[in-house]
Amino acid sequence: MLVNEIRYENSAHITEEIFIRVWESDETALYGAIRFTHAKDEFGEFFRVQFRPIATQFLAFTYPVRIREKYEHLRNSLQITVCNRTKTAKFGPKGNITANPHGLGIGTYLLSKVIEWAQKSYPDYKVAYGSLSSVDGYGEKGKRRNAFYRNRGFHLSFEDADEAEGHFSADQISQLNARWNKDKIQEFTLNEFVDHLGGTCRDIVEKYERENNVLKYNLEESSKDKKAYKNAALIFFIYFLLSIFFPGVTSWLVSFIR
Questions:
Q1: DSSP conformation letters of the chain
Q2: Is pLDDT of 244 > 80?
Q3: Within 13 Å, how many C-alpha atoms sit on residue 173's CB side?
Q4: Which is nearest to 51 in space by CA: 219, 151, 185?
Q5: pLDDT digits (tens, 9 = 90+) for 153-206
Q6: What is the reported pLDDT for 237?
Q7: Torsion of the alpha carbons at 155, 170, 36 and 68, rounded to the nearest 10
Q8: CA 67, CA 89: separation in Å to the nearest integer?
Q9: What is the CA radius of gyration of the chain?
Q10: Phi and psi of 189, rounded to 5°?
Q11: In this predicted model, which residue has the larger pLDDT, 245 or 60?
Q12: What are the distances in angstroms from CA 234 to CA 229, 241, 251?
């Protein structure tokens, strides 16, 4: 690909955040937040979906999961980078598709959301080669991994006889399968999430909101500091030029300020 994937990752902005419930069994559910981020320019486009666990509910009892301060780039994160010049798309991060905990359909859900987004605007684009996770390439894990990709519509190519290491790709994004199990994973807005759990999870949600507000505040303050620094640097540069070419003007400014 010709576009800079890292540049898109760093410039992506949040477009939406929702909540999901993932059934681990008939009596146990995992609740989490889903964040969508996006970046675009004339050369290509970037879209990312991330999952963050919040709480586990067993029967009528809700227990908070250790809440992380932010979404993790290489954990429960799926993204696609599109290059308009080559008409290709690459799944990531770094070509890998991984999710944890395994076996709950979280990886399928994240991948389906990415595929849904890509099929709306780039159905004819080719999927560039991505790396298969060699850690999960042997034995039963390898069979499940390969079935996961094939069920989504990817072509697999291998570098060894055991089919442990290899790549996934697709001729067109339109050939991929964006289905996910909606009986196992349900989506909620924040208000629906709180109403659904009632008071059992209100404290957890409030803690989540406080942490997110602190994170957003830090990002905003950091942005303000950068802007103030740039303005100060510009003023200093203008003053420096004036002092060279118009020394009388700078002397007047100093006396005026005093």
A1: --S-HHHHHHH-EEEEEEEEEEESSSSEEEEEEEEEEEEE-SSEEEEEEEEEEEEEEETTEEEE----SS--TTSSEEEEEEETTTTEEEEESTT----SSTTSSHHHHHHHHHHHHHHHH-TTPEEEEEE--GGG-SHHHHHHHHHHHHHTT-EEEESSTTS-SEEEEES-GGGS-----TTTEEEE-HHHHHHHHGGGGHHHHHHHHHHHHHHHHHHHHHHHHHHHHHHHHHHHHHHHHHHHH-HHHHHHHHHHH-
A2: no
A3: 26
A4: 185
A5: 999 999 988 888 999 999 999 999 999 999 999 998 877 777 766 655 566 666
A6: 46
A7: 30
A8: 32
A9: 24
A10: -80, 170
A11: 60
A12: 9, 11, 19
Q: What pLDDT score was predicted for residue 254? A: 46
| Backbone dihedral angles phi then psi of residue 96, each to the nearest 5 degrees | -95, 150
Average pLDDT of the residues of the chain: 78
At 150, the pLDDT band (50, 70, 90 cuts) reads: very high
CB 70 within 8 A of CB 84: no
In the structure encoding, which two tokens stand for residue 17, read together?
Answer: 């955040």
Report the pLDDT value the prediction gives residue 256, as an integer from 0 to 100.
Answer: 44
CA angle 85, 87, 90 (to 5 degrees): 110
- Could you tell me the two tokens for 165? 């290491």
What's the pTM value of the predicted model, to 2 decimals? Answer: 0.75
DSSP 113-134: HHHHHHHHH-TTPEEEEEE--G
